[in-house]
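[job 4417] fold queue: 2 targets
>>> target A
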Amino acid sequence: MVGGEAAIIESVRPVLAAMGTTITHIGPIGSGQLTKAINQIIVAGTYGAVAEGLALGLKAGLDMEQVVQAVGGGAAGSWGLTHRSSNMINNNYPLGFRVRLHQKDLNIALGAARDLGVPLPMAAYVEQVETGLIGRGYGDEDISAIARTVREQAGLECSS
């Protein structure tokens, strides 16, 4: 996700290639940063929705492995569901992408949204959840720890 003049992007492409395999020129300077912010908004919504869906299934006593298998192949399928649902089901959040780093990026997205007059209620909710997690000492856990708060609000076992 890169912004800037096309000729300059091409001249630094070898340097960018050393950092990642997919280089997408989005547009003028700032476009890459805004695209990253959009990514973080979508991640926030996806993880929040996965956490809520799984909390409902856990509270109902469903076999959550079967639930994930059943919904993962359809429209509900996502990277977060496939790769982080076990964290959320087991209430264990080993490091992947830190809550505090996602919150930093989400605040950039929320600032851009405010500047452009775009309401982001889901992203704002997740940012509040992340603020609470950081305040409770969970800022270095994977962002799937959003489920920690959702589980607690659902009356599922609380974490220490």
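>>> target B
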Amino acid sequence: MVNWARLSFYFDDESWVVRYLVVETGVVETGGWPGGRPVLISPNSVSKVSRRDRLFHLTLTKKQAENRPETDAHLRGAEAVTGYHIEARDGEIGHVHGFLLDDETWAIRYVEVATRDWWPGRKVLVSPIWIEKASWMESKLYVGLSREAILSAPEYVESTRVDRRYEDQLHSHYGRPPYWLHEKCQQ
């Protein structure tokens, strides 16, 4: 999974799947692309993710990258949603601090929740599947979990390896079935 603090992207607010990565052309090794203008790149154009070097290898020409997509009412910018308040079933519990992405399917697997107002400096993960409602006007996400469940969840730090064992522990804690069982049923 990818958790790059400065990765900017747009996601579909119904499926929670990344639709476009935002790339500053000034930082892209392109051999002559004009800098200073952000370009939206479909994740389908990513041929390889180099986690160690924090690079995406693309299969696009300059011309293809310059063609901006049409706007979509269901697109949300990750930067805009960062900071949204998280409302549990029994009250506010924190705010969106970041996102963890599956770099194979480009699904947002987890929303990183900072609970600093209730437990200083602590962060936990919540699956977007558990978000029951989003109020884009109020900048708030409503999660179908109790505050206690979120506060007592396994702590997440950036160095945490989010592997199947960690995910099993997380889903078990919340008493929710893992997403991979849901996805297997849909295939």
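[job 4417] complete. Note on B: The chain has two domains: 8-76, 81-186.
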